[in-house]
């Protein structure tokens, strides 16, 4: 096992992550079928040969000479994940570079994404699961979500792509939420803003300042938290997916909250879906809101 290979000057893998370049990932892991594919790479299932631990291997192809953009992106994701150590954040286990590929190895997260989970809840409710039990579980998952975001933000990371597909919920109870896929995350000071960056997330969850190509930072993640809390409580979205819905995002005109929202829930959502990012709750404040500390749903 070697040290970190040479990298672009402005992209440095942290000392805590040992990037292996004198062995192949296949030397240490049995690689299984493809789990998924995206712009930044292909994800395969795998099993550690020495421990039997199930893993997910994200493979980014950088070519024979290493494309500066794809190489920098792969190293950046490894770096950001290495800063995180939280039960609700994807766990990085190692990384390999051989030939034209970088392979990032993470603990495998099994279960459903958030939308699949909500469909599963409908089935469980139809089968007789109590509304009180379901509400308690949703409450736990929302708390896990804001804890995970607070952990990420405390490490000066902007996630930039909070959406149901990147939130995995375990099938096993008590159910656990895991924030996955840091491919679009970036590192910056909490007070900093990204200037006129191309939007990186999904439009249904993007904050007004992101849609307007204005400067944005960690508070844009908190808008997405507000959308996700609204979705988990009501089962619906606060904005419709249309041009009219986009205008309502820009104006902060979300759909009225019905009786499924407690007064504390309404207050929390109203403090997150705020057009002015400086007036939104930050992640640490969110964890201390009465919705989580007292009343809940």
Description:
One of its GO terms (molecular function) is protein kinase activity. With 297 residues, this protein is of the alpha+beta class. The chain folds into two domains: 19-107, Phosphorylase Kinase, domain 1 (2-Layer Sandwich); 112-293, Orthogonal Bundle (Transferase(Phosphotransferase), domain 1). The chain has ten helices and eleven strands. The strands form three sheets. A six-stranded mixed β-sheet has the order 1-5-6-4-3-2. Strand 2 (29-38) and strand 3 (41-48) form a beta hairpin. Helix 6 (218-234) packs antiparallel against helix 8 (263-272).
Topology:
Blueprint: E1 19-20, H1 25-28, E2 29-38, E3 41-48, E4 54-61, H2 68-82, E5 92-98, E6 101-107, E7 112-113, H3 114-126, H4 131-154, E8 157-158, E9 167-169, E10 177-179, E11 186-187, H5 208-211, H6 218-234, H7 243-251, H8 263-272, H9 283-287, H10 290-293
Parallel strand pairs: 1-5
Antiparallel strand pairs: 2-3, 3-4, 4-6, 5-6, 7-9, 8-11, 9-10
Helix pairs in contact: 4-6, 6-8
Quick gist of this model?
The protein is α+β, with helices and mostly antiparallel strands and 297 residues long. It contains ten helices and eleven strands. The protein has helices at 25-28, 68-82, 114-126, 131-154, 208-211, 218-234, 243-251, 263-272, 283-287, 290-293, and strands spanning 19-20, 29-38, 41-48, 54-61, 92-98, 101-107, 112-113, 157-158, 167-169, 177-179, 186-187.
